[in-house]
Design goal:
By secondary structure, the protein is of the alpha/beta class.
Length: 498
């Protein structure tokens, strides 16, 4: 049985590229189970652990720089001595080695590469030049040539690196171009039959300003998907209402609901998608369920999430959907810009700035008026922040007085009191010219609303919450802020507009 190995070279700067190359290789080649040799000269233990999360069967081999002392220094590309290190693969003890550069993205299956025999294979660039970023080296070559023999011979006269040496020393067999399509070729002609994309020149992680351009966006999409997988073993990857989302089945909050039902808060989300536009502030972004919908229809989204557990998923989910119009802030939004406490709930979506039984954590606070000094003012603000909406609205007084901002707020009457008076806040908004454009009834609250003569504008089958329009403040304010004697709140959420 043939002993086949795969190999690459990397360092601390290229570890991220190696991770994406390995992850995409495994994704597109489910039966891949070969030893993968990673050559390096400088690679931290942290980056080794990072790469091993992508693939367990990695063997790390450190390059001894002294082995390259005999290379004619005039031939070496300035500052790129590492460009010779792919010659290390000629020292591997195997029958065949498939060499893959660290700046590749595998987009289709490539396991047929292990079937090639005799000689060296690479993709032809021109009459006498082959790109050795993808290279197959068979036993007949490995049994004759090793690194030291090649270095000693070094037949190349111009400043170059290993590719020119291999081109000069060996008769290379031509691989189909689909196994090494450069990014410029892909940009010009599309993906077409490409099985491997080669990001020659500047790498995707070196030009962040182009991360949303084709074909760099393909690399970043793979990075987002697999980085989250590598960093958080156990996450589930799902398509939720048209968006890619990483969900944590071990938390008891939004992730669990989305994994079991694929959706939540039907009325709230219907209003959000109907009314949001322009610049949106998502106060309480959680893991991104609302943020993604806002990003798909708004010019700009600024999301706030102080709970690190949720914020990590929020960022991953934004990246997984390739949204470039979202900023994520770790501050808690309040009526001041000092340090304050949040209380971490067992269900992360219930974390609150109001004292609960959760673990206390100190966080930096910010006001929306402060944010608006340095960013676009909002045209839409969504709040789901477990009773802290009074402080948030106080800290947005200038915005709300001077702008016509739509406010979509989930209400939490159990947190309201004489010192945290949401009725007073709503009356202040009424004085500014705001009206209750819509309200959403809570479970069991529709009967109370309809007794006052309001008919539902929108409802969903087998869903007990409903949407009502143009509610008189004399009804809407107590419905939103008080809990009746039966202990069941009347409204779930409100949408206000001038």
């Amino acid at each position: 049985m043939q002993k086949i190995m795969f190999a690459t070279i990397t360092d601390n700067d290229f570890a991220i590229g190696t991770f994406v190359m390995l992850s995409s290789l495994l994704e597109k080649n489910e039966l891949f189970n070969y030893e993968f040799v990673v050559f390096y000269d400088e690679l931290s233990e942290k980056n080794k652990r990072f790469l091993t999360k992508a693939y367990k069967r990695i063997t790390y081999k450190q390059v001894d720089k002294c082995d390259y002392d005999n290379i004619d220094k005039s031939n070496v590309v300035p500052n790129l001595h590492k460009a010779y290190y792919s010659l290390e693969v000629f020292n591997l003890d195997c029958d065949k080695v498939i060499y893959l550069d660290s700046d590749l993205l595998i987009v289709k299956g490539i396991m047929e590469l292990v079937t090639f025999d005799q000689g060296i294979y690479a993709v032809k660039l021109s009459k006498d030049k082959y790109n050795v970023g993808v290279m197959i080296i068979c036993k007949d070559v490995l049994s004759v040539w090793d690194r030291d023999k090649i270095i000693k011979q070094n037949p190349v006269g111009e400043k170059t690196a290993d590719e020119a040496i291999i081109n000069k020393m060996f008769k290379i067999n031509e691989l189909p171009k689909k196994y090494n399509r450069t990014k410029n070729s892909i940009k010009k002609n599309g993906k077409k039959d490409a099985r491997i994309i080669h990001y020659t020149g500047k790498k995707p992680w070196q030009e962040l300003e182009k991360k949303h351009e084709f074909p760099q966006n393909l690399w970043w999409r793979s990075y987002s998907k697999h980085f989250a997988k590598g960093e958080n073993v156990g996450l589930k990857y799902r398509n939720i209402e048209g968006f890619n989302m990483y969900l944590n089945p071990n938390d008891n909050g939004i992730s669990k609901t989305l994994l079991s039902k694929g959706k939540r808060e039907l009325c709230f989300m219907w209003l959000l998608r109907k009314e949001a536009s322009g610049v949106a502030y998502d106060v309480g972004g959680n893991i991104g369920y609302t943020t993604l919908s806002l990003a798909s229809r708004c010019k700009k989204v600024i999301a706030f999430e102080p709970d690190k557990r949720s914020r990590k998923l929020l960022v991953k989910n934004i990246e997984a959907n390739n949204f470039g119009n979202v900023e994520v802030h770790k501050e808690a939004v309040s009526d001041h810009c000092f340090e304050d406490s949040i209380y971490l709930a067992n269900k992360p979506n219930l974390t609150s700035m109001l004292k609960t039984n959760g673990k206390m954590k100190k966080v930096q606070c910010i006001t929306l008026d402060t944010i608006a000094k340095f960013a676009d003012s909002p045209t839409f603000i969504k709040m789901d922040i477990e009773g802290a909406e009074i402080a948030v609205i106080k800290g947005a007084k200038k915005i709300l007085e001077n702008e016509n901002v739509k406010l979509l707020i989930e209400v939490h009457p159990k947190f309201y009191s004489k010192t945290n008076d949401f009725a007073e806040t709503l009356n202040d908004l009424i004085e500014m010219g705001y009206k209750f454009k819509y309200v959403i009834s809570a479970k069991g609250g529709s009967e109370t609303v309809e007794k006052r003569g309001y008919a539902p504008l929108k409802s969903f089958k087998n869903y007990d919450r409903k949407i009502y329009g143009n509610i008189n403040p004399s009804y809407a304010i107590p419905w939103a802020t008080e809990i009746p004697k039966n202990g069941k709140k009347i409204l779930r959420a409100i949408l206000l507009e001038k």
